[in-house]
Amino acid sequence: MIEVLNLGAGVQSSAVLLMSIEGVLPKLDHAIFADTGWEPDAVYRQLQFLKQKAESAGITVHLVNNGNIREDTLNKQINYRENGRTASMPMHILQSDGTKGILRRQCTAEYKIHAVEKCIRRDILELKPRQRAPKNAVVRQWFGISFDERRRQKTSQNKWAVFYYPLIEMKWDRVTCHNWMEDKNFPDAPRSACIGCPYHSDFEWRRIKEEMPKEWKDAVEFDQQIRTMKDLDGKAYLHKSCVPLDEVNLWTDESPGQMRLWDDECSGMCGM
Predict the structure, then answer these.
(1) Residue 64 falls within a domain, yes or no?
(2) Which of 41, 116, 157, 247 is most buried (most C-beta within 10 Å)?
(3) For the chain, what is the mean pLDDT?
(4) Which letter, b or e, does each residue of 17-34 get, where b requires 16 or more Cβ atoms within 10 Å of its Cβ?
């Protein structure tokens, strides 16, 4: 069985990779980071640290992408892929009749799942385009989903892979992962999510605004640019309140709360 980690470079997946390197978990063969092109600088710094540690331990790290989510979304105000499909972010919509809605979340599949699966087929299993994959499981695909997020675990839809959730098996939550890395004097891992993810909680938006001014400015500019997307009956926003991001009161309990990223992102690709 080929052992492959879906690496997000956040707290949980960082802990899983480092525990494999330290011998706490079985030895990984590969780790795959699917880059949306719009991660915070802290994630890319963490990725470089993990890449060096992994490759020193004989674990191959693959950096893959399926486009730049920010640029694609702003291209003609909609993301038209080559095959005609759209890959929408779950942006909040204030419709013309005053009701609120949310776009379908297709970005995880487009920029994470498909990119990782393509890497496994092409670079790890060395399959040619349209070549049939093995009918039996030959890859164990690891996910850094912790015990407190166990509702996110799923079963592989590919016959050639089985999913593995080591943190759930160990009953480790996110705090335990953080504490373990701290005890080992490893760098403090960031939260892994796109800068302008509409699933950010108010706490996360506050953290970005207070600690990451460059990323905050980027998110505010993006939020302003998506306001009148094509083919929408209404206006698009990053925040659930359907208020411009730089005008939202993020410091009061009266402010409408955001969905936590992992409450709806059940594919195990984001927030790790």
Answers:
(1) yes
(2) 116
(3) 90
(4) bbbbbeeebeebbbbbbb
Q: Which phi and psi (to 5°) does residue 42 adopt?
A: -60, -35
Q: Indicate the length of the chain as a whole number.
A: 272
Question: In the predicted model, what is the mean pLDDT of residues 190-196?
Answer: 93
Q: Are strands 234-237 and 92-95 parallel, antiparallel or unpaired?
A: antiparallel
Question: How far from the centroid of its chain's Cα atoms is residue 164's Cα?
Answer: 18
For the chain, how many structural domains are there in total?
1
- Owning domain of residue 65: 2-264
**Higher per-residue confidence, 77 vs 18:** 18
Can you tell me the mean pLDDT for 149-167? 95
* Full-model pTM: 0.90
Q: Find the CATH number of the domain harbouring 236.
A: 3.40.50
Q: Using one digit for the tens of pLDDT, what is the confidence trace for 21-47?
A: 999 999 999 999 999 999 999 999 999
Residue 270 has pLDDT above 60, yes or no: yes
> Is 92 in contact with 237 (CB distance < 8 Å)?
yes
> In whole angstroms, what is the distance from residue 18 CA to residue 180 CA?
10
The answer to whether residue 111 sits within a structural domain is yes
> Is residue 270 in a domain?
no
Q: Tokens standing for 96?
A: 């013309």
Residue (of 79, 96, 104) closest to 242 by Cα position: 96
Residue 146 has pLDDT above 90, yes or no: yes
Question: Does the residue 271 lie in any domain?
Answer: no
Contact criterion met (CB below 8 Å) for 108 and 34: no
